[in-house]
Write the structure tokens for this entry.
Amino acid sequence: MNTAPVRSIRAEGDVVITLDQTRLPFEEHWLTLAGEADCDRAIRTMQVRGAPLIGAVGAYGLAFALRQDASDTGLVAACARLELARPTAVNLHWALERVRSHVAPLPTGNRAQAAWAEAQRLCDDDVACNRAIGEHLLSVLPRASVAGRPLQILTHCNAGRLATVAYGTALAPIYLLHERGIAVHVWVDETRPRNQGASLTAWELAERGIAHTVIADNAGGLLMMRGDVDAVIVGCDRVTRNGDVVNKVGTYLKALAAHAHGVPFFVACPISTIDMRLADGLQVPIEDRDGRELSHVTGIDAQGRQHTVDIMPGAQRVANPAFDITPAALVTALVTERGACRASAGSLANLAAA
């Protein structure tokens, strides 16, 4: 069994190589990012997505920008430009600030190289962070409730290795269980409108030979009612000071169903995703995306040809918020690289002070 972590991004010489997630699962195409504009475009168009991976690409984007203008003005301007690429996930701001603060004291002639090295360290740290989250999740996950039955995990969107540098956050414990030969089965929400579950999470799990079943987004509640789900694990794009969780739209409904049926609801949460600047989830800017994501669907026909089709008659008015807010009270635990904690202001304050 191949147990080595598979990286979704790597530096090769003076460029960065990463998977184009808009072409999965039908085509595995590696993008070459050779400048700030490439990184910015990849983030905006969701060729790369997932909060930690967005942060990593943003960090490399800043290093590229400093090759063109390493002055104080150039550094500040590049951070401001790149941060606008995606407004909701706080990891982009965190990664840019990490690189900026590292290079700001340096002579301008050293900044670009130092920023590149810091972006590489950030990627290495992400791998270690995600594996640690996976280990801590293993310590809090319930055992299968029926003897001999695989542990049944329901997840939402894609918080696997495609959304990070390696392992993923919500999928990290699943990879670790699989590595250790412990039976696990994953219920994979399709995650409309972009189908990151059906297109990306299912692709990842199939790639590693992990048992899984794709379900409609609205089937999760029924599965929990029937006792077919032992735990829900999701990732997050931002966690506010009071423990509210901002994540892919549909997360809130899963949390409500889990609460109603006594199913533990865990949030895999890198500390870099916690935003102590904001008091609660209502203060987070929720990204509204193009309505075509909802009104159009892309797939392949029997001959393997890709098509995008309109699934709505006529010109319909479409609202497409990309994220929702899960109140802290519905979260069983936030699981960070330092361990699990309550989703509360006091717990997060202690974590931030550690």
